Amino acid sequence: xxxxxxxxxxxxxxxxxxxxxxxxxxxxxxxxxxxxxxxxxxxxxxxxxxxxxxxxxxxxxxxxxxxxxxxxxxxxxxxxxxxxxxxxxxxxxxxxxxxxxxxxxxxxxxxxxxxxxxxxxxxxxxxxxxxxxxxxxxxxxxxxxxxxxxxxxxxxxxxxxxxxxxxxxxxxxxxxxxxxxxxxxxxxxxxxxxxxxxxxxxxxxxxxxxxxxxxxxxxxxxxxxxxxxxxxxxxxxxxxxxxxxxxxxxxxxxxxxxxxxxxxxxxxx
Length: 269
Ligand SMILES: [Zn+2]
Description:
Layout: E1 11-14, E2 20-25, H1 31-34, E3 38-43, E4 49-53, E5 59-62, E6 68-73, H2 78-87, H3 89-101, E7 116-119, E8 122-129, E9 136-139, E10 143-147, H4 154-181, E11 187-191, E12 198-200, E13 205-209, H5 217-230, H6 238-247, H7 252-261
Parallel strand pairs: 4-6, 8-10, 11-13
Antiparallel strand pairs: 1-2, 2-3, 5-6, 7-8, 9-10, 12-13
The protein binds zinc ion.
């Protein structure tokens, strides 16, 4: 058995798999009383960091990438932390698996010169300038321009820009598909929804999140067709997906783009 001696810390050796370990503990302070080494064989997880503070309970957080951070009361013993980790091992492992798959979340914008902003599936640099009609604009071949004095309002201006741009596209697409395929939505609205790209009410009113303006045009078209199809089928049945496929052949590609990249897009309040 390859052993390492490391006082006060977990000594471990992998056995059957990465999660089953022979754990030995050596606490110099307790050595006389308890014998030099307490040997435990257990399924355990090691924390990457243990933060002690004035708190009453032990908690564990799993961060993107799988890092495990434990927060514990100032006087929590290493064994208490260890027991806690053992108890939560299953949860930690599943959280780590999820976090390792999850794409790194995008940061909120800071509206600095040169920062990249999304628009219709591409990223464009932001330029801070002295004067822009309306405070913020988009110049083809150049990118976004923001009036320096409006920096504190930049997020609201960007949101208004996205809403306006998306409204034009969505209305054009809705008109096209209604004329061609006879859909009859009762209303079309652009909303600030954060968790869904679009929705269709019982009364066939369609809502589209302004965040769609960050995605490629094919994704905007797919979400429009998806919600229009809901005016005929208010569910995700086989019949529903048949309508989507007939209306927009090849819809799988933009649908998958949204699934894959949706979480990478920056949060915009
Ligand atoms: Zn749906």
